[in-house]
């Protein structure tokens, strides 16, 4: 088991007020600070004093530069500032994402299929944007996807990112979401390795577990690697997940990179196809100056990845105008620096009343006319596919689609404090903690921290849990989050250990 430790001392930063610890890492700690001007909450990532060798400093600097280069994207955490504290430790000032991240959610709740599709398209857009900038993430997983105050997924932790040039040795990757080529004796990888990890993350959101995890079975690092390299991808195991979505995951997580989608954008378009087939609003692609493309008009290098499947419609185009008003409602699509990939689309008036994920820092470029054209083109493609004898329609979704919150975000849920464990004579360890702001309906999401994967989490009503003796050999560490009655939860769980 990885040894856990106390958080390092927060540095004294002029213009910032320390609030609390958000999380601990192998090379850095993350703290919540309140910036004085402009006044806002920010997350500050501080390199550990014992990790100041040249290699770690270089990685830390690389992370700052890469994230700053990509910060314009709505699904990548924004870097505000980077500097060196008075005590010599480098630090990054980042956007504070107050809502529960994907790591806290996917084991604790059954995430609706429409929400997972929306998250998948937005994350795929973020990964594609990084790839177009020549950057591989190399560690995409639920724990590296935070949630902004506006409900957008936000990819973070580019600490082991690399350029898309010649393959380099991979450091610190997370086994449960890593493709076979990164687990080999001589790791190699390219954009398709990120495609695999992206799909593995989407799989986890649907299944409530990592892709090759056996519930109640042997999930050691050695066993996980063996399954990733040789076992077929298990089905998600949910009746509301259509076969078309399972097929997208199967292809994106193929053992050999040549059999996967060639790009993250191809994954995004395949997920959009699933949305269209389920008659859901199609999530826009957030790509720099990407011209809107009608669904069904596949890229020339991967036609099958975006071909529409036929679905049954009640009469020719029946109900298209009124079936789903949201399907043609304008949504803010963030655009960034121009690229040489394609000419910029004609700017349309920005929609009103639909905030983007950063509130006022980004504008919208695609208006209702373009959004409506995309949806109508998608439906037309469906009808054509149906007339040509397409595949059987997928089962109707059982989850109710809930659009992202557009009103004021609720206040952040604090982390428990005073988390400590005591070992009993029988070898079990009892942990207790305190809730700094108790409210009616509060519960606690906790799990034992392990070397591989994410902890298996469970909900309890009291401020104490006991780890049985057979699970508490050696040092035992847990994480705990507060879960409110409205299902909001601590963004960064508290962590504690007992010898």
User: At CATH's second level, what is the architecture of the largest domain?
Assistant: Orthogonal Bundle
Main sheet specs: 5 strands, antiparallel
Distance between the termini: 11 Å
Strand order of the largest sheet: 1-2-3-5-4
Q: How many domains, as an integer?
A: 3
Helix content: 10-25%
CATH class of the largest domain: Mainly Alpha
How many beta-strand runs? 16
The computed structural class is: alpha+beta
Order of helices and strands: EEEHEEHHEEEEHHHHHEEEEEEE
- CATH topology value of the largest domain: Transferase(Phosphotransferase), domain 1
Provide a compact summary of the structure.
It is built from 8 helices and 16 strands. By secondary structure, it is an alpha+beta fold. It has 3 domains: 16-95, 2-Layer Sandwich (Phosphorylase Kinase, domain 1), CATH 3.30.200; 102-314 and 326-337 and 345-387, Transferase(Phosphotransferase) domain 1 (Transferase(Phosphotransferase), domain 1, Orthogonal Bundle); 417-498, Immunoglobulins (Immunoglobulin-like, Sandwich), CATH 2.60.40.
Describe this structure in words.
There is one protein chain. With 499 residues, the protein is an alpha+beta fold. The chain has 3 domains: 80 residues, 2-Layer Sandwich (Phosphorylase Kinase, domain 1); 268 residues, Transferase(Phosphotransferase), domain 1, CATH 1.10.510; 82 residues, Immunoglobulins (Immunoglobulin-like). It contains 8 helices and 16 strands. It has a 5-stranded antiparallel sheet with strand order 1-2-3-5-4, covered by helices on one side. A 4-stranded antiparallel sheet has the order 13-12-15-16, with no helix packed on it. Strand 2 and strand 3 form a beta hairpin.
């Amino acid at each position: 088991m990885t040894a856990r430790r106390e958080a390092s001392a927060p540095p004294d930063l002029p213009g910032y007020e320390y609030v609390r610890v958000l999380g601990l890492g192998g090379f850095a700690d993350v703290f919540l600070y309140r910036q004085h001007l402009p006044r806002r909450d920010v997350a500050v990532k501080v390199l550990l004093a014992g990790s100041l060798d040249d290699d770690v400093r270089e990685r830390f600097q690389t992370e700052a530069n890469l994230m700053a280069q990509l910060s314009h994207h709505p699904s990548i955490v924004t870097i505000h500032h980077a500097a060196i504290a008075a005590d010599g430790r480098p630090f990054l000032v980042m956007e504070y994402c107050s809502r529960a991240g994907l790591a806290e959610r996917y084991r604790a709740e059954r995430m609706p299929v429409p929400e997972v599709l929306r998250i998948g398209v937005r994350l795929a857009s973020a990964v594609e944007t990084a790839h177009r900038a020549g950057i591989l993430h190399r560690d995409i997983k639920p724990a590296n996807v935070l949630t902004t105050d506006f409900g957008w997924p936000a990819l973070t932790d580019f600490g082991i990112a690399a350029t898309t040039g010649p393959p380099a040795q991979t450091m610190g990757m997370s086994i449960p979401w890593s493709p076979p080529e990164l687990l080999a004796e001589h790791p190699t990888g390219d954009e398709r390795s990120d495609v695999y990890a992206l799909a593995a993350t989407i799989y986890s959101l649907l299944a409530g577990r990592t892709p090759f995890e056996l519930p109640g079975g042997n999930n050691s690092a050695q066993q996980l690697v063996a399954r990733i390299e040789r076992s077929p991808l298990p089905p998600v195991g949910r009746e509301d997940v259509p076969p078309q979505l399972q097929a997208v995951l199967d292809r994106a997580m193929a053992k050999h990179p040549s059999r996967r989608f060639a790009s993250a954008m191809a994954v995004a378009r395949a997920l959009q196809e699933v949305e269209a087939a389920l008659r859901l609003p199609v999530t826009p692609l957030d790509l720099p100056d990407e011209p809107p493309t009608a669904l069904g008009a596949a890229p020339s290098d991967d036609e099958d990845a975006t071909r529409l499947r036929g679905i049954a419609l009640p009469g020719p185009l029946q109900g298209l105008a009124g079936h789903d008003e949201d399907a043609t409602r304008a949504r803010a699509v963030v655009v960034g620096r121009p690229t040489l990939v394609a000419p910029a689309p004609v700017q349309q008036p920005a929609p009103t009343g639909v905030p983007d994920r950063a509130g006022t820092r980004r504008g919208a470029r695609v208006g209702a006319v373009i959004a409506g054209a995309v949806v109508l083109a998608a439906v037309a493609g469906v009808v054509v596919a149906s007339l040509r004898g397409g595949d059987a329609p997928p089962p109707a979704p059982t989850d109710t689609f809930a659009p992202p919150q557009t009103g004021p975000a609720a206040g952040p849920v604090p982390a428990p404090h005073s988390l400590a464990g005591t070992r009993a004579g029988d070898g079990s360890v009892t942990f207790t903690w305190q809730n700094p702001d108790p409210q009616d309906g509060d519960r606690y999401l906790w799990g034992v921290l392990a070397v591989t994967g994410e902890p298996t989490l469970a909900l309890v009503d009291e401020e104490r849990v006991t780890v049985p003796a057979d699970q508490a050999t050696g040092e035992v560490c847990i994480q705990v989050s507060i879960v409110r009655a409205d299902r909001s939860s601590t963004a960064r769980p508290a962590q504690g250990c007992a010898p």
